[in-house]
Structures are given as structure tokens and as C-alpha cells.
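Wait, can you check?
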Amino acid sequence: QVQFVESGGGLVQPGGSLRLSCVTSGFTFDVYAMSWFRQPPGKERELVASISSANPVKEYADSVTGRFTISRDNAKNTLYLQMNNLRPEDTAVYYCNAGFQRAEFANWGLGTQVTVSS
């Protein structure tokens, strides 16, 4: 069964940093592209960043370009999102899924809450 377990969120002041992790299981991690998504309060889920499976190609939403970095560790079946210079508008529940700029699987994890506030 495909599973995603996100962690690393929390409350941070504007300008701060967080590193999110997504541990995966139930599929062959290293052959899939992966993506981070987020759902701000009262809004639809949106794409944040994607990384290809090999010779990694990375793409970012305009709103996070230059501040967020997506990476992966295929040996650990784990996806990461380094978030720097956080802004209040980054407040959301963050999720991961397989796929490049899309969600490959219907299964979603519980997500991890990121709150940016002074």
C-alpha cells in the first residue's frame, strides 16, 4: 500500500526556515518523480515543487522560487523540502506525492502543518 508520512512542520516567524521530510513506502521510490503540494487555510491544494527521478530536474511554483529547495534521498525513500525566508502566505498543510507537477497516487498522507506568524 502506498504511504506518505510528512514531518518537520511547525510554527516559525517570518524570515525563518524549516526542513520538511516525506518518508514513502509501497512503491519503487527511485523510479518516480516526486512533488510537494500545500493547502492553505480555506483554499485548494496547490503544487509547490517537483523533482524528477534521475539527473534531477527541479521545478518550483513562482511563489517559492529562490526560497524553497526540493531534494530526495533514494536510499532512504525520502523526499525533502528546505524552506527559507518563510512568509505568512506560506502557511499551509504540506503534502507529498509521486509524480512531476501532478499527484500520481490517490493516497495522501496526513500532511504537516507549517504556520508562519510573528
